[in-house]
Amino acid sequence: MASDRPEAIRIVLGPDVLASSFFDPASKTVLDHWRNGVVRLIVTRELLMTYLSVLRGLGLSDAQLRRWAMWFTSRDAAEANMGSDGSGGTVPAMLARAASGGTRFVVVNRAAWRDALSREAAAVDAATFIRELTR
């Protein structure tokens, strides 16, 4: 049976949006849309490691990190590419590599990262992304 739900929008999530989601309403809304299936994350091995490092820095326990890792790589919530295509470098380079597989948006709050991505992907901050979703 076909689902009435529209296909999720594929995005790459900047690690700064993940960290900001604890205090920024727009960033939290992006994560809420991910949880609710409106968006689908594109996750690479290097982004997963970066996300988990950010969450560890915010004080999450090992058990909580395992739950997040499972969610980041869940077939229901994300498209995880755990191959070893490129590694290291700057965060914008990691985001660009993840976006190269075909994604509509890279959601990243840090202006310098958006500027670095401007030639390679449609990089927008969380608030702009939310406005785009509601058009």
Compose a concise summary of this entry.
This protein has 135 residues and is of the alpha/beta class.
Question: Kindly state the mean pLDDT as a whole number?
Answer: 88
Helix share of residues?
Answer: 40-55%
The number of distinct β-strands equals: 5
Taken in chain order, the helices and strands follow as EHHEHHEHEHEH
- Silhouette: globular
Biggest β-sheet: count, sense, barrel?
5 strands, parallel
**Count of individual helical segments:** 7
| SS content category | alpha/beta
Across the major sheet, the strand order is 3-2-1-4-5
Q: Strand portion, in percent?
A: 5-15%
The poorly predicted ranges are none
What's the alpha carbon Rg, rounded to whole Å? 14 Å
Distance between the termini: 28 Å
Structure overview:
By secondary structure, the chain is of the alpha/beta class. The chain is 49% helix and 15% strand. Helix 2 (25-35) packs across helix 7 (126-133), helix 3 runs antiparallel to helix 4 and helix 5 (91-99) crosses helix 6 (111-117). The chain is globular and about 40 Å long.
